[in-house]
Amino acid sequence: MKGRIWFILGILLFLGLMVVVEYNQPKRFVWTPTFGRYDHQPFGCAVFDELISEAWPEEYWVSRYSFQELTYDSTNYAVVAIAQHMDLTRTDVDALLELAEQGSKILLAATTFSVHLTDTLHFRCFPSYFRVQELRNYASALKSREPIYWVGDTARYAPRTFQFFPQLCGSYFSKRDSLSTSLAEIQVTGYQARWARGEYEEPDSVAETDTATVSVAFSMPVGEGEITLVSTPLLLTNYGVLDGANATYALRLLSRMTDLPLIRTEVYGSPDIEPQSPLRYFLSQRSLRWAVYLTMATILLFMVFTARRRQRPIPVVRAPGNKSLEFTELIGTLYYRKKNHADLVRKKFTYLAEQLRRHMQTDIEDETDDEALCRRIARKTGLDEGNLRILFRGLRPVMHGDREISEELMKAYIDRMNEIINQL
Question: What is the SS3 assignment for the chain?
Answer without folding.
Answer: CHHHHHHHHHHHHHHHHHHHHHHCCCCCCCCCCCCCCCCCCCCCCHHHHHHHHHHCCCCEEEECCCHHHHCCCCCCCEEEEECCEECCCHHHHHHHHHHHHHCCEEEEECCEECHHHHHHHCCEEECCCCCHHHHHHHHHCCCCCEEEEECCCCCCCCCEEEEECHHHCCCEEEECCCCCEEEEEEEEECHHHHHHCCCCCCCCCCCCCCEEEEEEEEEEEECCEEEEEECCHHHHCHHHHHCCCCHHHHHHHHHHHCCCCEEEECCCCCCCCCCCCHHHHHHHCHHHHHHHHHHHHHHHHHHHHCCCCCCCCCCCCCCCCCCHHHHHHHHHHHHHHHCCHHHHHHHHHHHHHHHHHHHHCCCCCCCCCHHHHHHHHHHHHCCCHHHHHHHHHHHHHHHCCCCCCCHHHHHHHHHHHHHHHHCC
